[in-house]
Design goal:
The complex is a heterodimer of chains A (301) and B (356).
Chain A: H1 2-15, H2 22-33, H3 35-52, H4 54-57, H5 89-125, H6 127-142, H7 145-156, H8 160-188, H9 190-198, H10 202-239, H11 250-255, H12 260-265, H13 267-295
Helix pairs in contact in A: 1-2, 2-13, 3-5, 3-13, 5-6, 5-8, 5-10, 5-13, 6-8, 7-8, 8-10, 10-13
Chain B: H1 2-6, H2 11-64, H3 69-74, H4 76-81, H5 84-94, H6 100-112, E1 118-119, E2 124-125, H7 126-161, H8 166-180, H9 183-196, H10 215-249, H11 252-259, H12 264-286, H13 288-301, H14 307-316, H15 320-348, H16 350-353
Antiparallel strand pairs in B: 1-2
Helix pairs in contact in B: 2-6, 2-15, 7-8, 7-10, 7-12, 7-13, 7-15, 8-10, 9-10, 9-13, 10-12, 10-13, 11-12, 12-15, 13-14, 14-15
Classes of the chains: A mainly alpha (301), B mainly alpha (356).
Chain lengths: 301, 356
């Protein structure tokens, strides 16, 4: 299997001389040989589907209380039973998927934006700009993200948006370092120097040479960033510092398991959310591993 | 080479050799001391710089926080008893009427003197609150760090030695699973298994049973929280130990050692693991922030009276002064541990020590 893949990859490398698209195709091929990543994509597609169509999939609504059906077990009207105030657990799981996806994608988009701007300026301007920006990056990185997140939450108060922004504000250093490193190595490359000598404008060097080179590593960082953001959101909501009820969040639902009777006798309230967190994070990590292999063929395990 | 030199018959020759060796030795030491000293000084300076940046970030956060800075310093009850003129006088005395950079200077001066302000959620000074809780956190962290590292190294070695067998595949996939499972779910699973359902014996909250302050009771209460943190830390260490040891085991000097007939155990421990250990040191240091973040959640779940629980409670009360205090302590801890990691690394790896 492994050998077979290698042989094919080598073959397509030969084609790289003739085919313009083949570096990209080769990456896709390497990605597709990693089966767990394909499983991951299927799982994430399902989670995204649930998040997008939560309204149709869960007609009962995540905030509809029904005091007659408090903590009723799965079956009948409620697919997964109801929680401690009589809300449909399945609806809350579905809308929780929405929360997780919004936080994951939103936080990573903002973090990548900040990181790219900081990294580009540090790499391009060098000297004191670089020194100052990199010290700030070190400063942010020296405090555990969760602690820094708790600081900002204590200032702005817990809500979906504040969680999203705060995660972005604490995770941008990874991409900033990556972009800066990439700029610094590329600046030394002969073909970049040649392009500059020939008089290619900086904007064109950026778009033609830098961004295509960055795309691969950044996509890996972004993928793991999403799973990390989902974990941080779940952790914060678990601590009561994240998404506030009645809005639904997986971490918040697992939090109910801190009551002994729910932990012991009413697993339908917390187990589905716990499983969703684990499955989603694992699936995204598998995709990340696949991307890493696709981008950098040298890194095998 | 050395024994060859000693066995040389002529007197003069051996003298030359001895002088040469002496010079080499002194060279070695001076070079080592100089570059090591320089490196350590540079790292301490970097650490101070990082701390300063953190304090700046923290102060900007503090000044953005809602509420009056005077009540954050003195406590709201003290402020409410003052007259308006007294408040004005106090503001001038504490320098709160001055611009931000000056206020920052005064604030950092106060912190260096051990005055971090007043915590409204704890109803005491921040320093007192930190002092009463720092011990519990450090105990939990240090023990989990030691056990987690040992666990990770042992499992990693077993996986590497049994490369490409089912043992390896099983042990190798464990860390992938652990990294995907947040620590609060691990904690709940352990509580479910060992405190309430299958083997309900271990305590799931507090540091001591009521009225029992004995050491044995403390250890008994530590088992579950320490396990959660140790498992979290072990996951990356398993991966790196395995990869790092495999890297070494595939190199030529291992083949040479094996072909000399050295026993398998000796080859792995003496030649393999000693060389694989160096990257592991930095991995343990790198994952300390993660461990601290895990401790915040673990302390909250197990009602462990440490700084993490303090921070979460303070954040729930929007008590920014207290949270900032925790952040500063954590930042100092991370910087110091990075320094220790660097120095340990320097001692363990002669290539780093010699600045090559």
């Amino acid at each position: 299997m492994q050998i077979h893949g290698c042989a094919l990859a080598n073959k397509s490398r030969f084609n790289a001389l003739t085919n313009k698209q083949s570096a990209f195709r080769e990456a896709i091929y390497r990605f597709s040989t990693y089966r767990l990543a394909l499983v991951g994509i299927v799982v994430i597609a399902i989670v995204v589907f649930i998040a997008l169509f939560a309204r149709w999939l869960a007609p009962l609504g995540p905030t509809d209380l029904s005091l007659e059906d408090v903590m009723s077990p799965p079956g009948g009207k409620y697919l997964l039973g109801t929680d401690d105030v009589g809300r449909d657990v399945w609806a809350r799981v579905a809308y929780g998927a929405r929360t997780s996806m919004i936080v994951g994608l939103g936080a990573v988009t903002i973090a990548l934006l900040i990181g790219t701007i900081v990294g580009l300026s540090a790499g391009f301007f060098g000297k004191w700009v670089d020194a100052i920006l990199m010290r700030i990056t070190d400063g942010v990185m020296s405090v555990p993200p969760l602690i820094l997140v708790i600081v900002f939450i204590s200032i702005v108060g817990p809500s979906l948006l504040s969680v999203l922004f705060v995660i972005a504000l604490t995770t941008w250093p990874t991409s900033a370092r990556l972009v800066r490193g990439q700029v610094l190595t590329l600046r030394e490359q002969e073909y970049i120097v040649a392009a500059q000598v020939v008089g290619v404008p900086t904007r064109k060097i950026l778009t033609r040479h830098l961004f295509p080179n960055l795309l691969g590593p950044l996509s890996v960082v972004a993928t793991f960033g999403i799973s990390n953001a989902i974990l941080v959101e779940a952790g914060l909501s678990f601590l009561g510092l994240g998404v506030r009820p009645p809005a639904a969040s997986w971490g918040q639902m697992v939090n109910l398991a801190q009551q002994p009777d729910i932990l012991l006798d009413k697993p339908w309230i917390w187990v589905p959310s716990a499983l969703m967190i684990v499955i989603t994070v694992l699936a995204i990590n598998f995709i990340g591993d696949g991307l890493r292999k696709a981008v950098d063929p040298k890194s095998v395990r | 080479m050395l024994s060859g030199a000693v066995n040389r018959p002529t007197h003069t020759n051996s003298k030359i050799v001895r002088v040469f060796n002496f010079e080499l030795l002194s060279n070695y030491f001076s070079l080592e001391r100089e570059s090591m000293f320089k490196q350590i000084v540079r790292r301490i300076l970097t650490g101070v710089l990082v701390l300063w940046t953190t304090s700046l970030i923290v102060y900007v956060g503090l000044s953005l926080a809602p509420g009056d800075e005077l009540s954050a310093r003195l406590g709201p009850e003290v402020v409410s008893q003052l007259t308006d003129e007294d408040i004005q006088a106090k503001r001038v005395e504490l320098g709160l009427d001055k611009p931000l950079p000056v206020r920052y200077g005064i604030w950092i001066g106060k912190i260096l003197q051990g005055d971090m302000g007043y915590s409204s959620s704890e109803d005491s000074t921040v320093v007192d609150a930190l002092q009463s809780r720092i011990g519990a956190s450090i105990g939990l962290l240090v023990i989990s760090m030691i056990l987690g590292t040992l666990l990770g190294i042992i499992i990693g070695i077993i996986a590497a030695v049994r490369e490409n067998t089912w043992v390896d595949y099983l042990l190798g996939s464990v860390p992938i699973l652990i990294i995907g499972v947040p620590s609060f779910i691990t904690a709940l699973a352990l509580i479910y298994t060992f405190s309430v359902r299958f083997w309900p014996h271990l305590p799931s909250s507090d540091m001591h049973s009521l009225g029992d302050e004995s050491f044995g009771d403390l250890v008994w209460h530590m088992i579950l929280p320490v396990s959660v943190l140790a498992i979290t830390l072990a996951a990356p260490i398993i991966r790196y130990t395995r990869a790092s040891l495999l890297d070494v085991l595939h190199s030529e000097f291992i083949v040479a050692a094996r072909s000399k007939g050295i026993s398998n155990f000796k080859v792995i421990m003496r030649h393999g693991f000693r060389n694989a250990l160096i990257p592991i040191i930095s991995i343990v240091g790198m994952h300390l922030p993660e461990l601290i973040a895990g401790a915040v959640i673990t302390e909250t779940i197990f009602n462990w009276p440490g700084m993490g629980q303090l921070a979460v409670r303070a954040a729930n009360y929007r008590d920014t002064t207290m949270v900032m205090g925790v952040v500063l302590v954590v930042a100092v801890a991370v910087v110091i541990s990075n320094l220790i990691t660097d120095i340990a690394y320097t001692i363990a790896d002669p290539r780093v020590r010699l600045g090559k």
